[in-house]
Task: inverse folding
């Protein structure tokens, strides 16, 4: 089994590469080479935003599956659809729970894959997607449009893994550290008046899931999250237990900055499809205290 991982240099992407390699796959990593690749892995150097460089780097190669860790815009998705058209039968896009950001509601049920209708999602390649600030400010929209474009235009089978908020290992967002630092220092944490549950996933487990999904045969969108939604009050309770300080919560007002995992709408995902396909995620309670310890360290 030959698998190409686009990106794979940072965060849980390195775990994904190791998972695929250890499962017996021949792994090729395609990126700009900003960090060394793991042993036993082939490295191709190219900027994924340079379509000509991608074609040059990939010349003469074919893969059983491609895992794209760094596709954030429909422009990047369109280039991937062209470049990989004859190079692979299966393409896995690492997407995000943020694609549901506009759909959640207070007291609503966990969001299933069908809640997002990609056939109704507008795709606009003329927006300034190459501008880093614009892309960051429109992260959820960029991912939705990337999913929509691939689902409509790609000649290969497409899987979109909608990943929950990833915790554990290197806390690359700093969001969990926000709680560890404030609660440990006895500082208040600002939350919504009625915080809603969100979905989380442990870094090692999302790497295992992506490796498993790359080698599976289902297609379409799939949610990837640990069992059990957690709201910010429950998160703060776990952090307080680990750091030995009871969390002080304050209700934020209109226009005030709130802590990063406080949400005013249900942000949890339904993982029935992944279970039906054969992968069951662990309960969030199994690993969250350890993730807090890692963030504290």
Result:
């Amino acid at each position: 089994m030959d698998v190409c991982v686009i990106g794979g240099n940072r965060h849980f992407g390195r775990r994904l590469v190791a998972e695929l390699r250890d499962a017996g796959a021949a792994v090729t990593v395609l990126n700009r080479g900003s960090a060394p690749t793991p042993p036993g892995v082939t490295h191709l150097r190219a900027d994924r935003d340079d379509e000509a460089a991608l074609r040059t780097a990939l010349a003469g190669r074919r893969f059983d599956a491609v895992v794209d860790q760094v596709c954030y815009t429909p422009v990047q998705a369109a280039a991937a659809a062209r470049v990989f058209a004859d190079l692979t039968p299966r393409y896995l896009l690492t997407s995000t729970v943020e694609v549901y950001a506009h759909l959640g509601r207070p007291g609503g049920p966990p969001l299933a894959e069908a809640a997002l209708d990609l056939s109704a999602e507008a795709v606009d390649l003329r927006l300034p997607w190459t501008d880093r600030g614009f892309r960051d400010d429109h992260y959820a929209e960029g991912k939705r449009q990337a999913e929509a474009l691939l689902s409509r235009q790609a000649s290969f089978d497409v899987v979109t893994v909608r990943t929950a908020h990833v915790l554990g290992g290197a806390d690359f967002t700093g969001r969990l550290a926000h709680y560890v630092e404030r609660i440990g220092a006895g500082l208040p944490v600002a939350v919504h008046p009625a915080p809603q549950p969100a979905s989380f996933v442990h870094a090692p487990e999302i790497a295992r899931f992506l490796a498993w999904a790359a080698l599976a045969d289902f297609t379409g969108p799939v949610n990837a999250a640990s069992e059990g939604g957690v709201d910010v009050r429950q998160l703060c309770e776990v952090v307080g237990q680990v750091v030995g300080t009871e969390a002080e919560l304050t209700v934020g007002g209109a226009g005030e900055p709130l802590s990063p995992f406080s949400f005013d709408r249900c942000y949890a995902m339904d993982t029935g499809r992944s279970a039906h396909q054969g992968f069951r995620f662990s309960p969030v309670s199994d690993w969250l205290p350890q993730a807090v310890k890692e963030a504290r360290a």
Observations:
- The longest helix spans residues 139-153.
- Residues 2-168+199-227+266-282 form a domain with the Rossmann fold fold (CATH 3.40.50.720).
